[in-house]
């Protein structure tokens, strides 16, 4: 098995309209082990409530993931490591939820706060993604772009039920409504999926401030074109701001390289990818 190289980059931006950034992002790549993660939280509630909720979620989950690489983890079997990573992610999300709920009880001014969350971690060639709400994760490799998450939103449920098309969802009166979030009730249910990575790839996590303006076709084009690949986060945020920037915008990328030539591929000259037709939906949350 080729040595695995992981690198990360992330950025959050207030956008062009809002007075406060309610997004939070945490990125980490371990210098000694093939371990990396990104956490993106998109808060809601206004008047600093959303920022507080997203900070609690991002800080808490970061702390739980940072504790993972101890001696028991490093010395156990690969299968056991996968279980431990999943457990850390799921239990960490539960802790995030309880902390937000506890804060709401002690700070009545934040009674309406909550946050979406999307988190991804890679250990060696094992990728795990958990999400709540409409912040998303994507994977891009030589085969194209794959969306790894399905929005927890009213319009997505209507699309799944055949009651709405993707095009109609873009102008739906309920397109801002999410169906799951941290800080609403106990317990919280995250969607968790995992994959084994066999090809070098780019993993993108983002808040809906990005996907409000940039569809899957454009995401694929940017990830396939710009090098160094980690600088795509700046292109994404700049593009969203140029197109209106009505929401806060967050994007984080993990480079996963499992062959030597991929390091040059992701850091060197642009490559071209023939785009495929996609149908995308755009959703945003109700903030107030």
From TrEMBL:
Q: Which GO terms describe its molecular function?
A: protein serine/threonine phosphatase activity
Major enzyme class: hydrolase
Question: What Pfam families does its record include?
Answer: PP2C_2
**Where does the PPM-type phosphatase domain lie?**
7-256
Keyword Hydrolase in record: yes
- Cited CDD domains: PP2Cc
Alphabetized UniProt keyword annotations: Hydrolase
E.C. code: 3.1.3.16
Lineage: superkingdom: Bacteria
Q: What is this protein called?
A: Protein phosphatase
Q: Does the keyword Mitochondrion apply?
A: no
